[in-house]
Structure formats: structure tokens, C-alpha cells
Design a protein that fits this description.
Elements (H helix, E strand, L loop, with lengths): L3 E2 L3 E4 L6 H8 L15 H17 L4 E6 L4 E10 L6 E7 L8 H16 L4 E6 L4 H9 L3 E8 L2 E9 H12 L1
The chain binds coenzyme A.
């Protein structure tokens, strides 16, 4: 199970001890406004946490806990999962609202894409968001994803973005040169 590091973040595996930190995020109505049915109970958060741990065991990918390097504080989660009931791999992220608009979701997302394309050798990674979730779409755009279509996943109408392996590496090379 991989752990990643970026300029400002550690992306580490979740442990059962992360329940309270995850619940702090999942119980916040502002953070959960555009997600599923909204806030989760502690029991629902516990189930999600077990699912995160199980998914890593079943697949060679999953969701990381995000820790800010400054103080090792838990600030959210980011990573790769199967999109709804499909074989497609989806990038997803949720951050503590006190850390929004500092480029941190973009930073964590780029690390997740690197893992997906460099380590897992995926051909394509997608992301979905409700149309009104402009911050999420902006992150998709900033990591090089392009809008493909409107679609329906997780019982919600969503916009569907994607990036292919070849585009990802082309963008990486452009940034290096
Ligand atoms: C979506 C989310 C993860 C973004 O995290 P973040 O760390 O703030 O993201 P970044 O700072 O990397 O980028 C955010 C971008 O969205 C922009 N943005 C923020 N709010 C916006 C809004 N209401 N309308 C338009 N753009 C907005 C920011 O200006 C920034 O773009 P810029 O760098 O071009 O200025 C965070 O808002 C969040 O956790 N939201 C709640 C959970 C969620 O919706 N997750 C996604 C589910 S699909």
C-alpha cells in the first residue's frame, strides 16, 4: 500500500483511529453540501472508513488520508476509487473547509493521478461532480481533465470529466520543459 508525499502534504493510509477526524468532515453540512445525501452520521462514517480500508485490500488503489506537513493535521481525503458501478477509475477529494482555496486539493489530485498513471498504468481517470460544484470542477480543470459529458452516477446528475494517460504525460512533459 503506497504512501505519497507532495510539497505540502502527506498522503497516508487511513487507520481505524481516523474516525473522529473523518467524522469532523463528513458531519459538516457546508463541506458535504454537494455530496450524496449530505452529512453522515458517525455510524455511516465508520462504515465509509471500513469501506476505504477494505477497498485498499481488494484493489491496489484507494483513498488516502491527507495530512498537512506543517503540523501533521488531518485535513481531508483524496484518491482513486471505482466510479459507481463501473470499471472506470475515479479521482475524488474532500477537504476540511478551513483549508480550501490554497491549491491543496489540486496538489493531492496530481499525486493521485501520478499514482494512477505511473504506478497503476491506467489508461484513463475520470472525475464527476454536481454541475453546481464549481470548485470541484475547477480542480478537475487545473489537473488537466476535460469536460466530456453530463451523466448520471450515484443517483445524481453530474458533469463528467476525464484525462487520458497520454494527455497526462504530455502535460507533465510540458511542465518539466
Ligand atoms: C472541491 C474541493 C476539494 C477543492 O479543494 P481546494 O483545496 O479548495 O481546491 P484548490 O484550492 O486546489 O482549487 C480550488 C479552485 O476552485 C476555485 N473555486 C472555489 N470556489 C469556487 C466557486 N464557488 N466558484 C468557482 N470557483 C471556485 C478556486 O478559486 C480555485 O481555483 P483557482 O486556483 O483557479 O483560483 C473543496 O472545495 C471541498 O472539499 N469541497 C467539499 C467537498 C467536495 O465538494 N468534494 C468534491 C466532490 S465532487
Amino acid at each position: 500500500m503506497q504512501e505519497l508525499e507532495t510539497a505540502r502534504l502527506y498522503l497516508r493510509q487511513f487507520t481505524p483511529d481516523d474516525l473522529d477526524d473523518l467524522y469532523r468532515i463528513y458531519s459538516d453540512s457546508e463541506i458535504m453540501k454537494h455530496l450524496g445525501k449530505g452529512v453522515l452520521t458517525k455510524e455511516e462514517t465508520q462504515n465509509r472508513l471500513y469501506a476505504i480500508l477494505e477497498t485498499w485490500k481488494q484493489n491496489n488503489f484507494g483513498i488516502w488520508a491527507l495530512l498537512h506537513k506543517i503540523d501533521n493535521r488531518f485535513i481531508g481525503r483524496c484518491g482513486l476509487v471505482f466510479l459507481d458501478k463501473t470499471p472506470e477509475v475515479e479521482l475524488g477529494y474532500i477537504l476540511d473547509k478551513h483549508y480550501w482555496n490554497r491549491g491543496l486539493a489540486t496538489e493531492a489530485s496530481l499525486a493521485s493521478l501520478h499514482y494512477g498513471f505511473d504506478i497503476l498504468k491506467l489508461e484513463k481517470i475520470v472525475a464527476v461532480a454536481r454541475p453546481e460544484n464549481l470548485a470541484s470542477q475547477r480542480v478537475m480543470q487545473k489537473v488537466g481533465m476535460k469536460y466530456e459529458k453530463n451523466a448520471r452516477y450515484y443517483d445524481s446528475d453530474v458533469v463528467y470529466y476525464s484525462i487520458s494517460r497520454s494527455v497526462y504525460f504530455r502535460l507533465q512533459n510540458l511542465q518539466l520543459n
